[in-house]
Design brief:
With about 600 residues, this protein is an alpha/beta fold. Helix content is about 20%, strand content about 25%. The strands form 8 sheets. Strands 6-5-4-1-15-16 form a 6-stranded mixed β-sheet, covered by helices on one side. Strands 8-9-11-12-14-13 form a 6-stranded mixed β-sheet. Helix 4 packs antiparallel against helix 8 and helix 10 packs across helix 13.
Length: about 600
């Protein structure tokens, strides 16, 4: 039966390798089960309408653009799309929470879950950012609502209804992210949804979920106790399992990247020679998969990609921050449960702001924005002087030194994370800069600020970008090479300075007259008062972004025994709560030899 249906699909769709939505309009049929799939991806907790820089204006094709986003507008569009559909399911393709807006980030993403619950989300893929804290946080807190720390201070905050956070009303899935000890998936690998059919029958649709394999070593989601299985092999395995359970209609819900060729100008329903790992995966993954819904790259496209037997199937992505909703309509044979592929339709809908925002969802978003403003103004500590990024002649600054000390303290809070020293990129050679701002002594613009007062919002904005501090092992000679990479020769022959700040128990000297790569001598590097031993393994605390080489210090490659400690923003808050008064340290950790 399936081969016959595939042949019908080829006739309907032609032989185009990539294209837009399937042009065939399904004929009305009383003997089919029509299922509507609605999905979003990479929502990232953008409850309020995003700005243009945050993706609030997207290209609509032919030189036009459209203003989009906002949870309340998303709710309105979802209601409209669901109307008249007896069989409809709304799901997400990962990075649903772990957002950057302060009002969700500072409340451990509980505001995002409240909104997604209200929107009626049925399930979500585990994206890389769902693991920005830990698998236990995902399962025990986000899914099950378990509290940690002090209720309404550290977690389980009071929501917009006055009730305590109870967790998600939906589930998370990933088939290929597994425990490195047991080899078992950390959440369910797939989900089966049942839909009404003529005669009171029900027909199943299976949703297999996989996650980008780089998740376990990503800069924010770095999880040494997890490993990622090959996506294609994992999909094949669970497809066979679903078929053994009598499921013939199967959708792949994959958090993996793709993009149209002209991502900045293509309309959101164009395909435009889309490329990327998800397109390659879609070309080779088993023909038993009837549709592919994806995310991760924050791109927008609506493609028909031939499966290995030559039959087109939809591959769609809806960008990010609630800009689009994908709609895929499947027609199922109620006798066999097969998808009639020639009747499949897919379209991306813009979440425009020319409709009335849903009042209940807007109330939730506004509640958390107001609470975020109050949290931002919470005092954490006092300071006796300013911490600035302004470097001295040796490239050292009081702000970078402070953040290096925070990392050292963070790592040494646990026996497992114990570190001999800490490093932070004060001005990295490439990528993002974790030393994001100054902490001036003078009163700032936030409400409730005063001279010498450090507020919650200030601490959140000056250090870090949602990265965990890792403790890793490096040989002394490797540590010397890392320090040498503070001076990097450019293609034009010039040398670019990329200074590293070190924790207070470290000092070193360098000779700027010597060539780049030979400016630091081991005997001039003192760790706890002792010269650097090239043969010894040192435990170094650094942000994951630095350890994986993303900001230009490739000499970290080959590090050993990684341990994940607390994340940057949260650990700085903890540091300030533990150190009620902070003072700028003297700039004597780095010395220039003359």
């Amino acid at each position: 039966m399936r081969n016959v249906l595939r042949r019908i699909g080829v006739i309907a769709a032609g032989t185009a390798l990539l294209g837009g939505a399937l042009s065939v309009s399904p004929a009305a049929a009383d003997d089919t089960v029509d299922v509507q799939l609605l999905s979003i991806t990479d929502f990232h907790g953008y409850l309020q309408p995003p700005t243009a820089a945050q993706g609030g204006i997207i290209p609509a094709g032919r030189g036009t653009s459209v203003t989009v986003g906002g949870a309340a507008y998303l709710a309105t569009h979802l209601k409209r799309l669901r109307s008249g559909h007896a069989n409809s399911v709304f799901f997400a393709t990962g990075d649903s929470f772990a957002g950057w807006p302060f009002e969700v980030d500072a409340f451990h993403d509980e505001p995002t879950i409240e909104v997604l619950n209200k929107l009626g989300l049925r399930f979500s893929a585990v994206g890389n950012h769902e693991l920005d804290v830990s698998p236990d946080f995902l399962v025990e807190h986000i899914e099950e609502g378990r509290c940690f720390g002090k209720v309404d201070v550290d977690s389980c905050f009071t929501d917009s209804t006055g009730r305590r956070f109870h967790g998600a009303d939906f589930d998370f899935q990933s088939a290929n992210i597994v425990s490195s000890q047991t080899g078992r998936p950390i959440v369910d690998p797939y989900r089966i949804e049942w839909f009404g059919a003529p005669g009171g029958k029900r027909v199943p649709v299976g949703f297999i979920t996989t996650t980008v394999e780089a998740t376990v070593t990503g800069s924010t989601s770095y999880q040494p106790r997890l490993r990622a299985l090959d996506q294609a092999q994992t999909i094949e395995r669970y497809t066979k399992e679903l078929k053994r359970r009598g499921v013939e209609a199967i959708v792949l819900n994959v958090h993996e990247g793709g993009s149209p060729k002209s991502a900045t100008t293509s309309g959101y329903n164009e395909c435009d020679s889309a490329y990327g790992p998800v397109i390659e995966l879609a070309k080779r993954v088993t023909p038993e998969i009837d549709a592919v819904v994806t995310g991760d790259w924050h791109s927008r496209f609506n493609c028909m990609v031939p499966d290995p037997s030559g039959v087109p199937r939809p591959v769609v992505e809806t960008g990010n921050h609630g800009a689009l909703i994908s709609e895929i309509n499947l027609s199922l044979d109620p006798r066999t449960g097969e998808v009639l592929r020639n009747r499949t339709r897919s379209v991306n809908h813009a979440v425009t702001r020319d409709v009335a925002p849903d009042r209940e969802v807007q109330k939730i978003a506004d509640y958390w924005s107001a609470r975020g403003a109050r949290r931002s103004a919470e005092p954490l500590a006092k300071q006796t002087g300013s911490f600035t990024r302004t470097p001295n002649a040796a490239g050292e600054s009081t702000a970078a030194d402070l953040y290096a000390d925070v990392q050292f303290w963070n790592a040494n809070r646990t026996r497992e994370g114990q570190a001999d020293l800490a490093l932070i990129a004060a001005r990295p050679a490439k990528g993002s800069n974790a030393v994001r701002g100054d902490l001036p002594y003078a009163r700032g613009s936030l409400p409730g600020d005063a001279d010498g007062r450090v507020l919650f919002g200030e601490s959140w904005s000056v250090y870090g970008y949602g990265n965990p501090v890792l403790t890793v092992g490096v040989k002394g000679r490797q540590l010397e090479a890392i320090l040498e990479q503070q001076w990097q020769k450019q293609a034009d022959g010039t040398v670019k300075a990329a200074p590293l700040a070190v924790s207070r128990n470290v000092s070193y000297a360098y000779d700027p007259a010597r060539p780049a790569g030979d400016r630091v001598s081991p005997r001039d590097v003192l760790i706890n008062g002792r010269p650097l031993d090239p043969a010894r393994t040192y435990r170094v605390a650094a942000l994951a972004y630095t350890v994986i080489g993303a900001d230009g210090y490739s000499a970290f490659a080959g590090y050993t025994a990684p341990v994940r400690n607390g994340a940057d923003h949260e650990s700085f808050v903890d540091y300030l709560r533990a150190h009620k008064t902070i003072s700028p340290a003297p700039l004597n950790r780095v010395r220039v030899k003359h």
